[in-house]
Each structure stands twice: as structure tokens, then as C-alpha cells.
Amino acid sequence: MLLDEDPATVGSRSANSRIRECPEKYASIDIFAEKQVKPLTLLIELSRNLQTLTTQHHETISSHNTTDHASQIVELDTQKFRVAKAASDLEIDGERLEQELDNLQGRLQQLELQSHEGDDTTKAKRELEDPTVLKLKVYRSLGIDVDPDKAGTYNKATIRNTQQGDVHVVNIDANFSRFFYANYFWQTMG
Hints:
There is one protein chain. This protein is mainly alpha-helical. It has helices at 7-21, 23-63, 66-113, 120-129, 131-142, 178-189; strands at 144-148, 154-161, 166-171. Helix content is 73%, strand content 10%. The chain has a 3-stranded antiparallel sheet with strand order 1-2-3. A hairpin with a 5-residue loop joins strand 1 and strand 2 (154-161). The radius of gyration is 55 Å and the shape is rod-shaped. The relative contact order is 0.03.
């Protein structure tokens, strides 16, 4: 009988027959083994995770220099305050320039309401008070602009000939007579 049967099946047969004989015992052993192995597997997995995290933590701490970090924070704070101050200064300048623009626009409107020679009453007073203004106005209407020097004497004239499109600048010298200059001005204008 021993040689008639396959040796692999003999052992399994006897184990199978024994398992069939007391199934509750083996079931309770399986449950016990599962209860013991499952926490052990979980413990091994948690141990691996702990080792990985510990290694990462040590690498992070070794690569992190606290003095460099502190100096970077101080530098960034300094830059932040500089930018904030510059923004504040620009905002103040912008408000000041807006106010100045408003004042200048108001002044421009006032000046536009008046002619370039002042309002009518001021212009009339000036013409009555100063005969030189009247002479200059006549010259200007003829196309002659007379320019005073630093001392206030009129020694330079700009003559415009609108028909020919010419402009002549004449320096008035005391060596020539008024008659000479009058003839020269008429010839240049005509």
C-alpha cells in the first residue's frame, strides 16, 4: 500500500483527512494567524514610511541654512519697504501734480478769457499811459517787431514781408539816421 500510492498525495491526504476531522481548530488557527500577521505587516509598512520621512526631514534640515534664510527675509523686507515708500512717494507726487495741473488749467482759462495783451480795460490804460506801446502796435501791424535789449532800448528790428515770405533782422545803430532806417524798412516791406 505504501508503494502503490504516490508519495505527494500520501502526505496531503493525511493532512486533508486531519483537517476534515477538526475544522474548527484550523479555522481558529487561521484567524489567530491573520490577527497576528496583519498588524505586523502594517507595522512594517509604517516603519518604512517613518524611515522615508525621517530621511527626507534630515535632508531638508541639512540643506536649510537658518542664517541664509534670515538674511533673505531681512533683504526681502527691506525691498518691500523700499517699494512701499517709492509707491507712497509717487502717489504723493501724483496728487501734487494733479493739483498743480488743475491750478494751471484754471490759470490758462483765465488767460484765454483775456487777450494776449490783457483784458480790455488794462489794455486801454496801458495805451493811454505809454505812447511807446502805441508806436510798437503800429510797427507790429506793419509786420515789424522791435526787440529791446537788456537796458530797455530798442536796437533790433525783425521785418516780415508776408507777400514774399522774407524775414529780415536789422540791428539799429546810432550812426545811421532815422530817415535811413525808415527808407530801408519801407523797401524791405514792399
